[in-house]
Amino acid sequence: MPSLPWARAAAGANTYDHAAEAVLPTVYERTTAAAMKAEAINLGQGFPDGEGPQWMRAAAAEAITSDAGPTNQYPPGIGLPVLRDAVAAHQEAHYGITLDPAHQVLFTTGATEGIAASILSFAEPSSEVVAFEPWYDSYGAMVALAGAELRTVPLEAPEFRPDIAGLRAAVTERTSMILLNSPHNPTGAVFTAEEMTEIVAIARQAGAVVMSDEVYEHLTFDAAPHTPVLSVPGAEDTAVAVSSVGKSFSLTGWKVGWVTGSASLVNRVRGVKQFLSFTSAPAYQWATAQGLEDDRGFFAENQQQLQGARDMVMSGLTATGLRPFRPAAGYFILADVSAVTDKTAAEFAAELVEHAGVGAIPVSALTLPSTQQEPDNALNYLLRFAFCKDDEVLERALSRLGKWIR
Ligand code: PMP
Ligand code: GLN
C-alpha cells in the first residue's frame, strides 16, 4: 500500500497506476470512455437513458430563476430545512422511522459524500473495516484514506446472501466499522430484516459503527421489501444510513444525498462533511424535497419499468450462453462468463467493448487486489451489465452479444 493519502485512496479503489505513480479514473468512467471510443453500447456505468421526472427538473429550474427562493447563495451546511423535513417525512411515511429533522438528517453532496464523511468519521487509523465483497468502489478508497484496513466477506452466487457466520468471524475487537449496502450494487441482493438485525447485533457487540448505503431503496422488484437499517432493533445508536436522489428519481447528476441516524452519530459525521463541500446547490435540494414529499407515482412506475428491463436482459443474456443471476433490485445483472470463455471477466470485458460493441464492468474492479490474484475466485468471472436503459438499446446490445459470443 503506498503511503501518501492520494495514492492510498487510489489504490484502495483499484485506481492507482503503480508504474506511472498516477491516478486512473474510476472503473465507471473508464468503461464509459472505452465504450464511447469504440462506439459501443454502454451497459457499464449505472445511469438511466432518460432525464428523470420533468416536474422535478422544472422545480429546480424555478428555484434557480425565481426571486422567491431558495436563493442561489450558500444554503445551510446541513441542508435546506425543507429538504431535511422532506427526508424525515419520507422515512416516516415509507418505513415508520421517526427522525428529528434538525439533528438527525444531514444533507450531503450525493451519497458519495455521505459515504466519505461517514467512513472518515468512524474508521479509526489502524483499525479494520469489514464489508461484503464486491463493494462499491468509494468504500475501498475511503477506508484506505482513513488509514484503516478493509476486510471482506464474499457474497456468493447464485443468491449473494450475506454470510452472517462469515461476518461474525471477520469482526474482531479491531473492527471500527461494518459497511453495508442493501439493496446491493452490483449483485442486486436485498438483505432481509433478519439479516440486517443480525448484522447490527454483531456490530453492537464489537462496538463498531454500521454505515448502511441504501441508495437503491426504491428499486426493488417483485415487491421485495427494503429494510432500512434504522428500522432494526439496536440500530439507533449504532448505525447511520446513506441515501440520495440519484437512483430513486433517475437524476444521477444532481448529487443530493443525506445521512440519517441518531443526533449524536449524525453530529459526528458533520464534523467531516462540513469541511469536504460545506454545502452545494440549493436548487437541487429544493427540487429533491418536492420529490420526497410526493413522488407522484414515480417510484412505482420506475420499479415496473426496471423490472421489465431486468426480465428482458435476463432472458437475453441466458440466450447468449452467459449465466446471469437474477437480481432482486437495482440497475445491474451479474453474469458468469466462465459459461462461454476461459478468460477472466476483465479480459472478456475488454474484448466485448472492442469486438461486440458492448461495454460492461468486471466485478473484479470492485474487490480487493488479493481477490483478483486468486484464479479460482468466482468473483473474477462475473461481469456486470446495467439494464437501466431504453428497451431498444438493451435489445440492440443483447443482439450484438448474442452474435459475437456465438
Ligand atoms: N452507493 C452505491 C451502492 C451506488 O451504486 C452509488 C451510485 N449511485 C452511490 C453510492 C453514489 O451515489 P451518489 O451518486 O448519490 O453519490
Ligand atoms: N453508481 C454507479 C454505478 O455503480 C456509478 C457511479 C459513478 O460513476 N461514480 O455504476
TrEMBL record:
<dbReference type="GO" id="GO:0016212">
    <property type="term" value="F:kynurenine-oxoglutarate transaminase activity"/>
</dbReference>
<dbReference type="GO" id="GO:0005737">
    <property type="term" value="C:cytoplasm"/>
</dbReference>
<keyword id="KW-0663">Pyridoxal phosphate</keyword>
<dbReference type="InterPro" id="IPR051326">
    <property type="entry name" value="Kynurenine-oxoglutarate_AT"/>
</dbReference>
<dbReference type="InterPro" id="IPR004839">
    <property type="entry name" value="Aminotransferase_I/II_large"/>
</dbReference>
<keyword id="KW-0808">Transferase</keyword>
<dbReference type="InterPro" id="IPR015422">
    <property type="entry name" value="PyrdxlP-dep_Trfase_small"/>
</dbReference>
<dbReference type="GO" id="GO:0030170">
    <property type="term" value="F:pyridoxal phosphate binding"/>
</dbReference>
<keyword id="KW-0032">Aminotransferase</keyword>
<dbReference type="InterPro" id="IPR015421">
    <property type="entry name" value="PyrdxlP-dep_Trfase_major"/>
</dbReference>
<protein>
    <submittedName>
        <fullName>Aminotransferase class I/II-fold pyridoxal phosphate-dependent enzyme</fullName>
    </submittedName>
</protein>
<dbReference type="InterPro" id="IPR015424">
    <property type="entry name" value="PyrdxlP-dep_Trfase"/>
</dbReference>
<dbReference type="Pfam" id="PF00155">
    <property type="entry name" value="Aminotran_1_2"/>
</dbReference>
<feature type="domain" description="Aminotransferase class I/classII large">
    <location>
        <begin position="40"/>
        <end position="401"/>
    </location>
</feature>
